[in-house]
């Protein structure tokens, strides 16, 4: 069956919607990287205007008419084809988006900009009270949003679906309950294995050297020339305007090399967007399928590559050469143990592989409690501190390193946090399949050959974009849906009492 004219009309309309949304992403990048703080008010208005334009284009009667006309064409296609996927995904997006009143969307967008700027000022000032009204407004907006979907099994499902399509809060709880069961004893074992922190990472690394290091690793991992940039920001993230406009960020601290691992993490996000099939560009299919799958890619490059022995056998001489004063007296084994040490800590983005998930689980539980009214926003710092002590035996000294440490609640991205640990779990499932198909992968990493890994990910995951649901994408790549057991096995083998010394 030949393509009907309605399909070309739909493609044209969706390309315009995609263009407007990508301009919004670039403005969001600018807000976090370059915009002066006083620009927040007008930027919020600009973002709201662009969102309204994209919204009106997308949920118009014309889009609905085209989708209806294309039903018979869709039925004639292979469901896995690009055309069928485009119609199917667009229809699902249309059904959800069209329920949202334009006035509520505008309020949500403006609140996101204002909340981010309030958080950016509140954290360095350790001033939760100045941020609290913005968080209260975000919770109120999310409750109004959830009420638009009364058929949902539970309110949190609506928010989770925005970031991890098709997944239910009950499924996340089942995975997280298994993680907690396995991680609590493992934390104690790993602390015994690694012993006390010897201060290897507590050294001053010049910012210009860190910047050069970040650029070096992005070039080594690989990408198409002229398509990437890297900048400093308050909270590392990845963004951009399309498959050949990838913008990643990192943060250069005066002590330690957290920026290096943040760069590897954001590289994974950028690579996913970079390797989506170009024929899906300027469509609703032309980006990563979910934040969980996205996180599986970033955590893979950060941890499964960036904290592995093969990688450091290759890269540590380069690191020592760049920082001879700081690392001239540190051998490779000492460095490897330092970057893998398990030690409960305050800050999620700097947490080790084992304790990181407890940070995420804490936030997942608090978000549900905030949404249900079981925790009042005024009491949130105290509840945060109590759970940090209960889950990680960490005492929180101030709100800047506690409840204010992440930007997400300021921007209204509630339902997002679970995807971090879902990504951890899926990353090892994908890694096991890669190592089955590339049995010499460790040898290649030790030689600094990253192309085989990059290309495998592009072929089996990245190129599909949003064609399939997240769990369908995972199943196509590895043969199963999400399963925490490979991840727990990986952590036990690397960090448990029986791990190699």
In short:
Helices cover 64% and strands 3% of the residues. It has 501 residues and is mainly α.
Commentary on this structure:
The chain has 501 residues and is mainly α. It folds into two domains: 5-152, no CATH class; 169-495, Neurolysin, domain 3, CATH 1.10.1370.30. The protein is built from 23 helices and three strands. Strands 1-3-2 form a three-stranded mixed sheet. Helix 6 (102-125) packs antiparallel against helix 7 (128-146), helix 7 packs across helix 8 and helix 16 (356-372) packs antiparallel against helix 19. The termini are far apart. The mean pLDDT is 95.
| CATH classification, class level of the largest domain | Mainly Alpha
| Class from secondary-structure proportions | mainly alpha
Number of helices: 23
Largest sheet: 3 strands, mixed
Low-confidence stretches: none
Distance between the termini: 63 Å
Question: What is the CATH topology of the largest domain?
Answer: Neurolysin, domain 3
Using only C-alpha atoms, the radius of gyration works out to: 23 Å
Query: Strand order, biggest sheet?
Result: 1-3-2
Which properties best describe this structure?
single chain; 501 residues; mainly alpha; 3-stranded mixed sheet; 23 helices; 3% strand
Layout of helices and strands:
Layout: H1 5-33, H2 40-58, H3 61-69, H4 71-75, H5 82-97, H6 102-125, H7 128-146, H8 155-163, H9 169-194, H10 207-221, E1 228-232, E2 238-242, E3 245-250, H11 258-274, H12 291-305, H13 309-322, H14 324-327, H15 332-340, H16 356-372, H17 380-392, H18 408-411, H19 418-437, H20 441-446, H21 451-460, H22 470-478, H23 484-495
Parallel strand pairs: 1-3
Antiparallel strand pairs: 2-3
